[in-house]
Amino acid sequence: MTEKDIIDTILTKHGREGTRLLQILREVQEALGWLSPPAITAIARGIGWPRAKVEATAAFYSFFHLRPRGKYCLLWSDNIIDRMQGSRELMHRLCEKLWLEPGRLSEDGLVFVHTTSDIGMGDQGPALLINYRVATAMTPERVDAMAELIRAQTPLAEWPAEWFAVADNVRKAGPLLSSFTPGSALRAALARGAEAQLAEIGASRLRGRGGAGFPTQRKWQACREAPLKEGQTRIVICNADEGEPGTFKDRLLLTRYADLVFEGMTIAAYVLGARKGFLYLRGEYRYLLEALDAKLDERRRAGLLGHAILGVADFDFDIEIHLGAGAYVCGEESALIESLEGKPGRPRVRPPFPVTHGYLEQPTIVNNVETFACVTRIAEHGAEWFARLGTPQSTGTKLFSVSGDVVRPGIYEYPFGTTVAEVLEAAGVAQCVQGVQVSGASGTTLTGDELSRRLCFEDVPTAGALMVFDCRRDMFEAARNFAHFFAHESCGFCTPCRVGTQVVARLMDKLAAGHGSQYDIQELSKLSRLMKNASHCGLGQTACNPIVDTLAKFRPAYERRLMTLDFVPAFDLDAELSQARQMTRRDDEAAHLFTAQG
All domains of the chain, ordered by start, with CATH? Predict the structure, then answer.
């Protein structure tokens, strides 16, 4: 097939709909290797959009390439946990073997090696993406063998299968991760009725598991009551864009408990009267796509999706999977909706909120993967059973992704209210704990003296990640890694975040190089306040959380990097002050002249 035929086939498959632009771009890139200017033009013509609009979407996402990336594109996870496991050293080893520089295509156009943000494999790193397929547990021996395979241009399908194995690493399972019979919870919800099931969600006091903890019943109620225009329906979206560094619990749910998630979405559709659902799957989990599509087909054959579900007239609901393309900001619900519509994933101005004006201006709920799994368990066992678990304000259990300096990294299920110490004891702390980053880069940094604190909304809220740093680690370097993560992931919509994250990253680099001063530390504090109060969305508002926490709790890690002068030259203080006053007057005069001319 010619390039034109390939693009036409993909466009036809997706109905030439602009809302499916991300899927079209991804499939064209997988088929052709990159998104060439003629390919962008053909796609724009095919969906009837301006070319500039299509190119803007392609340029926004880091997994789309507007320049060639070669036959092999290898992106090493640059999360601080992967770095602690040796990812940087392994990447440079590979580059030396292949005679290339990170971030530059090899001279023969064969291979590209660089870093990417966290890929959700903190429990089995060092990890990387090879042509967007996850490879785990890398070693020097594997890297050497990989270099030979690349030199020989061996097809990826012939590489060792064990390199691409992803372990579930369930270390402690509880009620959420117990066995489940598909359809049982949905039948229980149908027996109750839509209003009674919504009341059951309210009585359970379920709060969203994505981090914000918004009451699920209130969100669903608002969407249920939102008026519909002619031709509209309500929309159910599962946010599976698990991009927070250190988090990988949703990966497990989608791998082994997909029925829990899809059934929760279907129960939500029944309660809301929705007919359309989307699972927005992060691009790093591309390897799960075929298995999840097969699971949806299985549920359709069983009458659990599609037309007249379980024989109930007018209960029509189906789910599509849309794959993201490497944009952390799409974890924010309105940015996710923009992405689903084929646009750059930038957060919307709110109000209006998605519950009234969401996907294509239709009433929409967006809930986390774990939240929908909890909905299924509530429908199955009842609100009273669920509310007995956890604490009064944080009911149920919580999945924790534990990584870093522990003996048994992986997934742990505990009731809300469990202490940090209890989780770490189960995970096996190898040495003394210096710090724990709770809830990923945007969360809270705890010291080793705070391990008695409870993981719940009343004390330490968490989306489910615990990154453990023992006494060998440098907490400044952890914060610096997070600063670069946010600088890379800022969508650029608002100036405080777009500029602020870059300045923070540069200040951290300046300190790391030993060129910083107390002034730079003060500037970091000022920037954190500015960004928190002036940024458009949660990314900018929380980007400095690790900086603020580590400055307060690990300040010596900053101060030992400050510039010191062994020799201070003598100077005339009066002369210096006089010169400073003259410079100030000149600046004031220049400013006055500029204002007058303006």
Answer: 3-60 (no CATH), 72-167 (3.40.30.10), 172-387 (3.40.50.11540), 397-473 (3.10.20.600)
